[in-house]
Amino acid sequence: MTQPTPVPTPPLSQDQQILIALRQTLTTIVRELTPAPGMPHPLRDATIEDVRHCLLLITARERELAQLQGRGGELPQYADQPGKVELVPMAGLTRKPN
Fold it and tell me: How far apart are CA 30 and CA 62, in angstroms?
């Protein structure tokens, strides 16, 4: 039985690479600036809303560009998410007689 050939994905455009870099940079800044519980946030509420708005715009444009390339619908796979493969224990399996 042959393995299915993976469909090659088109290379990312320069716009897509810029959007990815912007998204990653903004989320890193947010992560580094997030205070410990009970501590005041160093950013003003208006600034936090501006960052959220930027991330929403970036995500929307990334989605548009991906759909134009026919790459829409991709979702990230998180480490704690159950995989698509279901493991079956081998301990109880027996061989059928010929």
Answer: 20
Residuewise pLDDT in 10s, the chain (98 residues): 555 565 566 788 899 999 999 999 999 999 999 999 999 989 999 999 999 999 999 999 999 998 888 876 656 667 777 777 777 778 877 887 87
DSSP structural state of residue 96: P
What CA–CA distance (Å, rounded) separates 52 from 98? 64
Q: Tell me if 22 sits within 8 A of 58, measured CB to CB.
A: yes
Q: What DSSP element (H or E) covers 16?
A: helix 14-33
Segments making up each domain of the chain, as ranges: 45-73
